[in-house]
Amino acid sequence: MNFQDRVSIDLADNGVAQVRFTRGDKMNALDGAQFEAVLEAGQALREMKGLRVAVLSGEGRAFCAGLDLSSMAAGGSNPQARLVDRTHGNANRAQEAAMTWRKCPVPVITAVHGVCFGGGLQIASGADIRVVHPTTRMAVMEMKWGLVPDMGGYALWRGLVRDDTLRELTYTNREFSGEEALGLGFATMIDEDPLARATALAETIANKNPDAIRGSKRLFKVMQEEGEDAILLAESREQDGIMRTPNQVEAVMAEMEKRPPRFAD
User: What is the mean pLDDT of residues 209-220?
Assistant: First the structure.
């Protein structure tokens, strides 16, 4: 699948989808067409049959260099649009480019290399897991242009990055490396080959009960947004819906018989 020649999706037989930003000549920077392609790809993943895990990466020299400066100078694709308008559920278009990965029903793993600035960092932060090359250049870049992070970063960085550290990085737009990002909380792990590591991790997850994986992702959302009572009830509801179902029984049988599981959609 190809979206406006900006984002591609290739679904393997094992249920792992490789999602690639393909605007490599522009370091996958975000202009109007790139935003639309990202949103279309995110929606396609929500509807995709046989999907177990998605791996998000960028072609060329960068994962995503952030906002396309020429697009920003021209006022974007619709300079009259109000950012407060909720055009995509609880988000505007730019926010949805990052939040769509959280709304994806299966885990999303981002492989980050080269440059990951501003909006690119917020998109990467929308993933469940981030595998980052140690020399990746990263920054909460918006203050450089006199702006605030507004693509979901404040929602996504809760629980990832220490509050005072996030304030320092936001106020100064200081650049940091992928290796430093691991200690800061922006990276889950670092690797010399982020895409290979992310794909291997995706293949491991794809071999688990898909019903339990999706249920776990729903519970992480509840954990982030709700109080203790709601979390406890949500756990019970998810487990009631999974226990003794064919895929759960298959997970047990495959483990006991020491064979690969055969799960059904």
Answer: 98
